[in-house]
Design a protein that fits this description.
The protein is 68% helix and 0% strand. It has helices at residues 2-10, 25-33, 37-46, 48-59, 69-84, 93-113, 130-168, 174-180, 185-200, 202-211, 216-223, 227-232, 234-245, 258-263.
Length: 267
């Protein structure tokens, strides 16, 4: 719901394909633990890049899902993590899954070390032909890219939830922002710039966060804008300033005025 309201407020959600999944990793795992085996299969398939990346980081080399035993070990460990995960432990699912994968890979490595006559695959990795090496590198890069995209979506969800809680202290909701946002892009860009400058002014930003009110008098003088305009867009400006001056690196990309985006500048 918050994601939907955020997209309606910013008007920039149509391109965010990564938000199509309705559940967070923790919610999906909970549904699987309740018996949704179809979701388990879909979830494991979706997170194959994460599994391969985690295994590659452990082995300090590219892990080929089609031929390396480490990938099979990591895949089984990820499935085990889904079954064993509990939110009461205090960690996010992906962090817990990475721990389980690493532990199982450690166990696997210890077993392999008992067979000292076995030459590790990494020792003959250089014998691959050039085309295979290039393909492996590209696959590794793609796996990391997919995981990074998924992680950004998760970070965005967390930031939106945190922002919603902070806005509540100011009597502002995403529904308010959706209904009261400026209708014209020029007006929106002007307010985005004002909100960003407010966040960069330590004195004014402190007045906002301490009193939880816009410093209307000071903004009128500095920005040469009417008090009526500021009051009419009070909630919008509060939200923009809190994002620009707060711990919201992902959401900050959404509040760049369109004119500055085109020029590659920052407000």
């Amino acid at each position: 719901m918050l994601l939907l309201l955020w997209r309606k407020w910013t008007g920039r959600g149509s391109a965010e394909a990564t938000d199509r999944a309705p559940m967070s990793p923790e919610e999906a795992v909970a549904a699987i633990q309740r018996g949704d085996e179809a979701l388990r299969n879909e979830w494991i398939k979706q997170y194959r890049p994460f599994i391969a990346k985690t295994a590659s980081q452990f082995a300090k080399r590219y892990i080929d899902p089609s031929r390396d035993d480490e990938y099979s070990v990591a895949l089984s460990a990820f499935d085990e993590a889904i079954t064993r995960y509990s939110p009461d432990a205090g960690s996010r699912f992906l962090a817990f899954a990475a721990q389980v994968i690493n532990r199982r890979l450690i166990d696997y490595s210890r077993r392999e070390q008992r067979h000292s006559s076995v030459v590790p695959y990494s020792a003959v990795q250089g014998d691959r032909d050039e085309d295979s090496s290039v393909l492996a590198a590209l696959e590794a890069k793609e796996a990391i890219s997919v995981y990074a995209t998924e992680q950004t979506a998760e970070d965005r969800r967390e930031e939106i939830a945190a922002l919603a809680a902070e806005l509540k202290l100011y009597g502002v909701t995403f529904a308010d922002l959706r209904d009261q946002s400026p209708k014209h892009q020029d007006s929106r860009d002007t307010l985005l710039k004002i909100g960003a400058r407010l966040a960069r002014n330590p004195g004014l930003f402190a007045m906002l966060t301490d009193k939880r009110q816009l410093p209307l008098k000071e903004l009128c003088e500095i920005e040469n804008v009417s008090r009526k305009t500021l009051e009419r867009n009070r909630k919008y400006l509060i939200a923009v300033a809190l994002i620009a001056g707060g711990p919201y690196p992902v959401l900050q990309e959404y509040i760049k005025p369109s004119s500055l985006e085109k020029e590659g500048e920052t407000p």
